[in-house]
Amino acid sequence: MGNRSVADADGLLAGREPATGGGAGDPGAAAALAGGVLLIGAVLAGNSLVCVSVAAERALQTPTNYFIVSLAAADLLLALLVLPLFVYSEVSPPGLCDALMAMDVMLCTASIFNLCAISVDRFVAVAVPLHYNRQSRRQLLLIGATWLLSAAVAAPVLCGLNDARGRDPAVCRLENRDYVVYSSVCSFFLPCPLMLLLYWATFRGLRRWEAARRAKLHGRAPRRPSGPGPPPPDAILAPDTTPPPTPSPPLQARRRRAKITGRERKAMRVLPVVVGAFLLCWTPFFVVHITRALCPTCAVPPRLVSAVTWLGYVNSALNPVIYTAFNAEFRSVFRKALRLCC
């Protein structure tokens, strides 16, 4: 993902190429520079606030929010290492270009892998709540695995895959069409269906749990009223008999189930919005991206490439806005932090 607005005929992935077409006096370049600066500021401010809020507020330190912090960290690194590409792309040497492109691939992959990790964690919490481990060790291992897999997807660029013969040193782009397809499939077209399937199973399980809970509450026998009156039928026993003890789940299991279906279930309501915003912002880019790799003769307008690329980058600034709008706890902590800053 990059910022090139002018695509050449041989470019495999113009959406990941830096701007090389306009000078400092070009109105389009000036607008891109101003928009890029504003976007970088918004991404840095919003995602820094997310990380600081979760670190400072104990109520936000839930398993789901650990993954949200990891997602915010990917957006912060994107704003620091990738978005400034168009500012100094004209003086960037090819080695630095390859490193930044590898970071771009890795951070985009890390974003969607973190969303997939959230879906896996929520599915486990709903499917096997009594065996769900709320300790942070399992969540941290899952987050570490997402970053390692993301680095593995981007590693070929750093290992010399992009050093094609006859490469133009003034242009920064992915040169290998097979890698374009490979990275697209690994970063987007495989994780997205898996994530959607897991969320469908998770919310289906939640609906079943709620239905069973309501049925249990409505079917509970009423308590015996105080004062004189006939005892209930199940209380008529022999004088020397005692009612058999009713089996009950262990106390720890009941507590674990209650915690999972309390604050964390409320936090889950924001996740479909986060996933929907991610798919809305990145699906056009990857569709254009893989179309250019599989169909070199297809005419893709440069303005379309530029538009879908920046639409993907805008997603990094959207998540803090989503948390503020749909999560009351985040909204309260954000207000508190802003009052302290002001």
UniProtKB/TrEMBL annotation:
Membrane topology listed for this record: Multi-pass membrane protein
Keyword annotations from UniProtKB, A to Z: Cell membrane, Disulfide bond, G-protein coupled receptor, Membrane, Receptor, Transducer, Transmembrane, Transmembrane helix
Keyword rRNA-binding in record: no
Spans through the membrane: 29-54, 66-87, 99-120, 140-159, 179-200, 267-287, 307-326
Gene source species: Sus scrofa (Pig)
Gene Ontology BP annotations: adenylate cyclase-inhibiting dopamine receptor signaling pathway; adenylate cyclase-modulating G protein-coupled receptor signaling pathway; adult locomotory behavior; arachidonate secretion; behavioral response to cocaine; chemical synaptic transmission; fear response; G protein-coupled receptor signaling pathway, coupled to cyclic nucleotide second messenger
Name this protein carries in UniProt: Dopamine receptor D4
Region (Disordered): 217-255
InterPro entries assigned to the protein according to its UniProt record, in alphabetical order: Dopamine_rcpt (IPR000929), GPCR_Rhodpsn (IPR000276), GPCR_Rhodpsn_7TM (IPR017452)
GO molecular function term, any single one: dopamine neurotransmitter receptor activity, coupled via Gi/Go
Superkingdom, taxonomy of origin: Eukaryota
Cellular component, GO annotation: centrosome; dendrite; glutamatergic synapse; plasma membrane; postsynapse
Family (UniProt): Belongs to the G-protein coupled receptor 1 family.
Domain G-protein coupled receptors family 1 profile: 46-323
Subcellular localization(s) per the UniProt record: Cell membrane
Comp. bias (Pro residues): 225-234, 241-250
PANTHER family assigned: ADRENERGIC RECEPTOR-RELATED G-PROTEIN COUPLED RECEPTOR, D(4) DOPAMINE RECEPTOR
Chief location of this protein within or outside the cell: membrane
